[in-house]
Amino acid sequence: MFPFTLEKPLSTEDAIAAAASGARFIAGGTTLVDLMREEVERPERLIDINSLPFGGIRIEGDDLVIGALARMAEVAADPNVQRLQPLIAESLIEGASPQLRNMASMGGNLLQRVRCPYFRMLDAGCNKRAPGSGCAAIDGLNSGHAILGTSDYCVATHPSDVAVALVALDATMRVRGPQGERSFPVEELFRLPGDTPHLEHTLLPGELIVEIRVPGGPHSRHARYLKVRDRASYEFALVSAAVALLVADGVIRQVRLAVGGVGTRPWRLRDCEAALVGKRPERRAFEEAAQLAIQGARPLHHNQFKVELLPRTVVRALELAGEVA
Amino acid sequence: MAENPSALHLSGPRISRREALQATAAAAALAALPPGSAAATNAPAAAAVTLTLTVNGRGHTLTVDPRQSVLDVLRETLDLTGTKKGCNQGACGACTVLVNGKRIVSCLTLASMYDGARIETIEGVEKDGALHPLQEAFVEHDGLQCGFCTPGQIMSGLGCIAEGHAGSPEEIQFWMSGNICRCGAYPGIVAAVADAAGRS
């Protein structure tokens, strides 16, 4: 690990000023420390933000508000989260080992780096780690890689589970930076790789995630997160689907649908949603809508199975959500 | 039996295997630093953070390099080698300890960020010479083979039970999935956690 200084800021403003001049925030450290040990990340200054007042979970009207420093385990175990936004609790519990969930913060979860093995392999080409060095995954071992939102420069999937749930649920996030605060949809945090895959998110220098706000609604209580993976627990998704479904009088009134493990960012399926509204919650309608999920898919040599697994996962997640609807 | 001073002189001062390994590791660590790096020169800023930790009820004031993990401090500074270093990447769970009552992987935890923390390790689980019920259950159910993962399994099992996630074998499997056992002693581990949860 390269040497660094660790600083404990006295105020949020101090932390933001330090980050604006090149320091890195650290909260749980479960991604950053790992990547520093691998020498993929080499920050010279770390700002320990854990003493800043951005923890906690609260209800405001219909909204669930989650502090960026709240831990994954804490959020998943919160009775309000379980009652009002079961999709968030379920996606968090599926998201990492219990030890990591006790450490990892919500803000850090959203900003975690990709799990592409070539990103960590210092002698392999990776445009994300070393812009211009190529992408070893495109012709390499790519069974875990993306089929949606890829470019000729990067095919890595976004690894977060809870981000998929937050994107499905129209969550927004509040950030604070040198120019003050702003809020925007969580979906807009994530950039497509294009020809600049090293730029992963839309935060400006020094911006700190403060909180995540999830609007409530009758659909959000009838929701499931289905994660398909190579083993039953503690593994990243091959395909995952977050579904919230409101059925009234035998007809789908509202549906929210996003998928993980297949996109270079958490992938909202608005065409599928539109195709489902007004339909009866039946398998045929689910299957027809799910076919829209693979529009524009660009499979690689080893991940062609995802083109079939994705719609199947969406159908099964819709069925599971239908059981609680 | 009195020692022969001349013999002692000939063979040099006695050092334990652990001390020898530590000396080697320290030399290697210095050698591994890139030339001209802050830590290799004088590096006052990058070096030395002083903190206090309470480990198994005992207070320690320590000076650490910011790069040192809680795992490294436990093993190399405090000589508490019960906590094992497996993958050193947060993936295997061998280094699990309880920090402020929560189970975490100590390898991904920078000690310098945990000033004032209360840490419990496998060395603190036994009380007054009596094994903890979970330790007894591991013995009774053959919850180990080589034993390397066992301290982490036990610390994680304590967390799993305290969290209320030991209600069925399936639940225990899911909530213990951050602890890998390469020998495959999982049936015994699950049985031990279930047994201990039932006793407590």
UniProtKB/TrEMBL annotation, chain A:
It comes from the Bacteria. This is Probable hydroxylase molybdopterin-containing subunit. GO terms for molecular function: FAD binding; oxidoreductase activity. Keywords: FAD, Flavoprotein, Plasmid. It comes from Sinorhizobium fredii (strain NBRC 101917 / NGR234). The keyword Cell inner membrane does not apply. Residues 1-219 form the FAD-binding PCMH-type domain. The keyword Flavoprotein applies.
TrEMBL record, chain B:
The keyword Metal-binding applies. Pfam families: Fer2, Fer2_2. Transmembrane segments: none annotated. GO terms for molecular function: 2 iron, 2 sulfur cluster binding; metal ion binding; oxidoreductase activity, acting on the aldehyde or oxo group of donors. Residues 49-125 form the 2Fe-2S ferredoxin-type domain. It comes from the Bacteria. Keywords: 2Fe-2S, Iron, Iron-sulfur, Metal-binding, Oxidoreductase, Plasmid. PANTHER family: OXIDOREDUCTASE WITH IRON-SULFUR SUBUNIT, OXIDOREDUCTASE, IRON-SULPHUR BINDING SUBUNIT-RELATED-RELATED. This is Hypothetical oxidoreductase with iron-sulfur subunit. It comes from Sinorhizobium fredii (strain NBRC 101917 / NGR234).
